[in-house]
Design a protein that fits this description.
Blueprint: H1 2-33, E1 34-36, E2 42-44, H2 45-48, E3 65-68, E4 77-80, H3 94-120, H4 124-150, H5 171-179, H6 182-210, H7 214-241
Antiparallel strand pairs: 1-2, 3-4
Keywords: Membrane, Transmembrane, Transmembrane helix
Region (Disordered): 68-92
Domain DUF305: 96-238
Length: 242
Amino acid sequence: MLSVRIRALLGRSRAIVLVELAVLAVLAVGAAVVVWWPEGRPESAATANPQASLDLPGLPDATAPVLMPGAPGEPAKTVRANEKSPAPRPTYNNADIRFVTMMIPHHEQALVMARLAADRAANPQLKIIADRILAAQEPEIKTLETWLTDRGLDRNSSGGHQHSMAGMQTAEALELLTAARGAEFDRMFVDMMVEHHQGAIDMAGEVLALGVNVIVNETASSVVVEQGAEINRMRETLTGAK
């Protein structure tokens, strides 16, 4: 009986040892998956190993070569993408040129009509409005001419892109206005100048939508505001005279 018990105890000891060995094996596998940093925070093995990060496909290479065309007569050259300077934004375009080249003669015709008011108009308020037109549009013509000169342009620079100038009066209409006096002149002057101003506002609206130049934009904005106000004043002048 004693020998049987001893063999049983030995058998149980071997079983316990085998269980302990199995537990140690499981712990060893877990230690291979989890890495403990010095701060005590667990990190996965993939995170702990920087070589385990995945390379994302399709990312642009900032050093990839870019072919840059040379100036006329010069060969093209290759530069890195991160060394290529962005193309400068244009400072003016065809819409700006068209507006400037059309607005100069448009203003000039307004000056011709405004100068007639001094000795032909009957309404003193209309003479004041004519003086304001002279004071505003003469300097604007000089500003627009300087804008063209500074860019090596002239009145013909719009070429075939120049549209008909809205509101421009015919030579016959100007002759009739020149011959008129008193109330007849006042009525004709207001009708013709209102149409003329409205044409300038229409052209200004076009360049405000399509142009890019700051100076032209400011001039066009001034045309819209000032000539719109003058249209209202001229109409009020005729209404008050009745």
